[in-house]
Amino acid sequence: MTSQAIRDPLADHLITPQNAALVLIDYQPSQFGTVRSMDPDLLRKNIVSTVKTARAFGLPIVHSTVNVASGQQEPTVPELGELLEDSPPLDRTTVNSWEDIEFVQAVHATERRKLIFCALWTEVCMAFTALDALREGYEAYPVVDAIGGTSLDAHRAGLERVVQAGAQPIGWVSLACELQRDWARVETVPAVVEIVLSDRLLKE
Question: Which pTM value belongs to this model?
Answer without folding.
Answer: 0.96
